[in-house]
């Protein structure tokens, strides 16, 4: 699992079926893009109700409750100490998430610092599994990391970078559940190397990337003139994380295979006449190309779902989100340009192309209608 440039740590597409309950609209994503030569590939994702996302949204859209609790636990840091803590977060974000960092510079200073602090925590969490010390990973390490997260939310940071997040949760209505869910995704990486269907893969993508969207919305803010429910904005943020993670998975198929991991639905591989053996052999066959077309279409669908919410964020926060949407789409384009060979090649978007996309993302962030 690798960390995407849009905050998150290895983050389908399809028709939307909606059902309403007494308070919340529940959205279920289903893949209905099967080639005619195969049987129906329709696979349900995990409903937002099952993920209990609406509970997170409800708490994070009632800021007084969360912030009042956070203020009770707010540690008292010397201003110079906090300044240094956030400067360290800024440097890490600038080094490892260059495009997103540039977009974050349009935000207010308070939002900048908060989003950098969240990014750093996500990156550190991801590196427990994929970093240089990952060989020492164990369930005990993750248990301790979760205890440390509890300490952050209770105003007892362990180090300077934790202190930046502790200060952030005292200023913004951030619920702890998305952070805990991300740690759960790391746990999955310690024991699970196969996903039998899309529902399992979707859940993994939610844990390691969809959660980032849920963390980010309270910091980025929803535009005062937005006319859609806050739940819809959060849904879109979750879908952006899902799309990013699916794109990372498609980009890194060869790299993951070298570590014995296959982040692809096993049943869908079978329906295209493929198996793990074909991945490990690194042969790009016609069956593989057809399979990849299906997976790319799915990822693009989630990006399409994310666009609605991107336009509903506070105006100063939209540019980094639109940058992520456009640049991750270019990774999918690069896979296609490589003849769907993501077994021996890594899709790459060059710096020049990235820079050319930034003005487009900025324009979209300004002109996309709020309705």
Automatic annotation (TrEMBL):
Q: Which InterPro entries match?
A: Isoprenoid_synthase_dom_sf (IPR008949), Squ/phyt_synthse (IPR002060), Squalene/phytoene_synthase_CS (IPR019845), Trans_IPPS_bact-type (IPR044843), Trans_IPPS_HH (IPR033904)
Tell me the pathway: Carotenoid biosynthesis; phytoene biosynthesis; all-trans-phytoene from geranylgeranyl diphosphate: step 1/1
Gene3D superfamilies noted in UniProt: Farnesyl Diphosphate Synthase
Q: What is its EC number?
A: 2.5.1.32
Record GO cellular component, one term: plastid
Per the record, a Pfam family? SQS_PSY
Catalysis: reaction(s): 2 (2E,6E,10E)-geranylgeranyl diphosphate = 15-cis-phytoene + 2 diphosphate
| Superkingdom of origin organism | Eukaryota
State if Membrane is listed as a keyword.
no
Q: What is this protein called?
A: 15-cis-phytoene synthase
Which organism is the protein's source? Answer: Senna tora
Q: What is the lineage of its organism?
A: Eukaryota, Viridiplantae, Streptophyta, Embryophyta, Tracheophyta
């Amino acid at each position: 699992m690798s960390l995407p440039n849009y905050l998150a740590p290895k983050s389908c597409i399809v028709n939307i079926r909606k059902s309403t309950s007494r308070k919340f609209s529940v959205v279920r994503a289903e893949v209905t893009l099967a080639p005619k030569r195969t049987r129906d590939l329709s696979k349900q994702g995990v409903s937002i109700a099952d993920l209990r996302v609406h509970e997170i949204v409800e708490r994070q859209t009632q800021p007084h409750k969360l912030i009042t609790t956070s203020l009770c636990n707010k540690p008292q840091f010397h201003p110079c100490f906090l300044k240094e803590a956030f400067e360290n977060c800024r440097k890490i974000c600038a080094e490892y998430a260059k495009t997103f960092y540039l977009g974050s510079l349009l935000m207010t200073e308070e939002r900048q610092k908060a989003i950098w602090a969240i990014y750093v925590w996500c990156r550190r969490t991801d590196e427990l599994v994929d970093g240089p010390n990952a060989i020492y990973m164990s369930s005990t390490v993750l248990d301790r990391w979760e205890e440390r997260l509890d300490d952050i939310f209770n105003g007892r940071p362990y180090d300077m970078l934790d202190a930046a997040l502790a200060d952030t949760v005292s200023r913004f209505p951030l619920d702890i559940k998305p952070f805990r869910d991300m740690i759960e995704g790391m746990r999955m990486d310690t024991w699970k190397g196969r996903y039998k269907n899309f529902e399992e893969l979707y859940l993994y993508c939610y844990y390691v990337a969809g959660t980032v969207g849920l963390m980010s919305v309270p910091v980025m803010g929803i535009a005062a003139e937005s006319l859609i429910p806050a739940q819809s904005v959060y849904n879109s943020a979750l879908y952006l994380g899902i799309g990013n993670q699916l794109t990372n998975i498609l980009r890194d198929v060869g790299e993951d295979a070298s570590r014995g991991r296959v982040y692809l639905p096993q049943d869908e591989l079978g329906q295209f006449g493929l198996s793990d053996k074909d991945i490990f052999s690194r042969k790009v066959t016609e069956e593989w190309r057809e399979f990849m077309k299906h997976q790319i279409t799915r990822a693009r669908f989630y990006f399409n779902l994310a666009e609605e919410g991107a336009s509903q964020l506070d105006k100063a926060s939209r540019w980094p989100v639109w940058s992520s949407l456009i640049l991750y789409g270019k990774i999918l384009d690069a896979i296609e340009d490589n003849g769907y060979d993501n077994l021996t090649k890594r899709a790459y978007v060059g710096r020049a192309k990235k820079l050319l996309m930034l003005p487009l993302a900025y324009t979209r962030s300004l002109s996309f209608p709020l309705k």
